[in-house]
Amino acid sequence: MAHRERGEVARSAAAGLEAFVRAGGRRDVLVGFDGFIDSIIRVVDRRKSLAPEDYEAIATIPQFAARAAAAAGKSANIELVVTERRFGGNGPLLAGAIGQLGGAVTYIGAVGTVEDHRGLDPIYEPFASRCAAVHPIASSGLTDALEFDDGKLMLGKPGPVQVPTWALLVETFGVPWMRELVERCSLVGIVNWVMMVGVEGIWRGLIDEVFSTMERDASRRRVFLDLADPAKRTDTDVARALGIIREMDAVCPVTLGLNLSESQRIAQVCGAEAFDDSHNVAMGDAVRRTAESIRGALGIECVVVHPREGAAAADASGASAWFDGPFTHAPKLSTGAGDHFNGGFSFAQIAGLAIDECLAVGCAVSGAYVRDAESPTLGRLCGFLRDLPGTE
What is the reported pTM? Predict the structure, then answer.
């Protein structure tokens, strides 16, 4: 596709979203199936006094790593300050981003209480207000999100998110209900394969009992998948998951979302060209080629790769693009930035935007989120796109 200037793409994306909404484009979306309660944490470097907020935080992950490494053979007392507790999990963050933009989201997942798996945990009430419907089926996992200026460390306790399975969905809702729900949806988002034992079974159930009964049509319905950092899973596990993803794409077009490190692992497993910045090639070109190579190796509808600096995507039509993102070195919140990118990109896809515009929307949703520490509305997003900042 012809290259367009960054600002032109962003403005065109804003206009496209507004036209979609004016035309009555409120699309139904199904997302599942995890749920976490996130504790947003800063790690204390040194205290000025014992007043709760009177401290200097460890600024970077290497500094934190050095502090931890220095304790080897000794011991260390590292103080964690919880600055906020909020709803989290890849699924709720993705769904919340889409719902805030105007998607009619049905969420099914681990957002219940310990006492009542079918009762919504109060921490998710702000999330539920963005959705058309929320169906809790398990209690939530817990995450300690250690925030640094150069990234974050997510320390997960995922026990409860093992509860959602295809068998539980069938027992709770029935296959006819699931078919009816999916039939009216433009997008089905399934995330966090890495932490959830039930995800592959849910994929298989949807392939065999739901998608196989419907027409494969990317203009009507698509799936978005995020594996969520497969570093701790074996190559055998990853290869098996990729095989099921190929099967799913045969019955419903699949977009696979990856961050940069995830793209390198997936490329390694499927025999595609991995991102390599050791050559004299612009980052955008290298990431775009990685997206093209992975998509080609998997044979699926679309692959999108989003490093911090921007994002690239390639689809089955042969279109591919890179978009320079509005990266900031001083985010108010970074936990959930990738999920917000995915939400923006997916929403733009079902709005029918071009691939470079989808990338612009994804980058802008993420960029506004990390600056505001909240999901952008459609108005905030379109304003952000029209006055898109560069790297800050």
Answer: 0.90
